[in-house]
Amino acid sequence: TTHGNEVTNAPGFVDETNRNYHLLSTSPAKDTGIVIPGITDSYVGSAPDIGAYEYGGTDWTAGHNFANSPNPIYSKPSTPHMNLAVNGGFESGNLSSWTKTDAGNAVVVNDDHWGKPENTGMSRSQAYGVKLSGWVDGVAQTITGLQPNTNYVAAGWLRSPLGATAVLGVKNYGGTNVTAASSNSTWKFVKIPFKTGSTNTSATIYFKKTISLLGEVYVDDAGLILD
């Protein structure tokens, strides 16, 4: 079985014990990967294979070719399915690329998650998260460079220790404002599928604490990806 560019059962290697990770002709990983320009776009068959080796293709060689050194042109990557939200995990330690909204109380909190129970703390992973407090409080980010008439998914993790309502929303993309909410006291993953309008190339994602209760809500690991 394959899901999310992963093989969830026996991958069908030639000889896994002896580290031969080439694929058998019957491997479920054949022709089930995704095209990534410059990486998997020279595939053999109907689609790229999942894994390091393309069945029937030319093997890649690790290391540096000193006899024929490459002359790369460096540029900012734009890989399909990469997270388009900037500073989505807030690991910069600040709100760079985000804008405070509503009460303007939003702050980045340093609460190292390593070694803590999974669903606790003010950050869901690594060290930093965002705390929203007051009656209505939030942060937002406008993401540019999207494709018109294209499906995307916005997502993030929310935690409300005292039961206040935390909201993830998407707006200004060429459609109606869409939201997903949680009042969980533990970290909950929420996501919103949406489709850009026929001429829209940007969208605004936002997180908000509503007026349902006083107390704080926490936000972490925000993302926007191609669906």
How would you summarize this macromolecular structure in one to three sentences?
The protein has strands at residues 2-3, 6-7, 13-15, 20-23, 99-102, 107-110, 128-132, 137-144, 151-159, 166-171, 178-182, 188-195, 202-209, 217-226.
Indicate the percent of residues in helices. under 10%
Structural class: mainly beta
Order of strands side by side in the largest beta sheet? 5-8-13-10-11
Number of domains: 2
Instruction: Give the low-confidence spans.
Output: none
As a percent range, the share of strand residues is 25-35%
The rounded distance between the terminal residues' Cα atoms is 20 Å
Q: What is the CATH first-level class name of the largest domain?
A: Mainly Beta
What is the N-to-C order of secondary-structure elements (H for helix, E for strand)? EEEEEEEEEEEEEE
Q: Which word captures the global form?
A: elongated
Number of distinct helices:
0
CATH topology of the largest domain: Jelly Rolls
Characterize the biggest β-sheet. Answer: 5 strands, antiparallel
CATH superfamily of the largest domain: Galactose-binding domain-like
- How many strand units? 14
Quaternary structure classification: single chain
Q: Mean pLDDT, nearest integer? A: 91
| Proper CATH architecture of the largest domain | Sandwich
Q: Roughly how many Å is the radius of gyration?
A: 22 Å
Domain CBM-cenC: 83-209
Keywords: Hydrolase
GO molecular function: hydrolase activity, acting on glycosyl bonds
Protein name: Carbohydrate-binding cenc domain protein
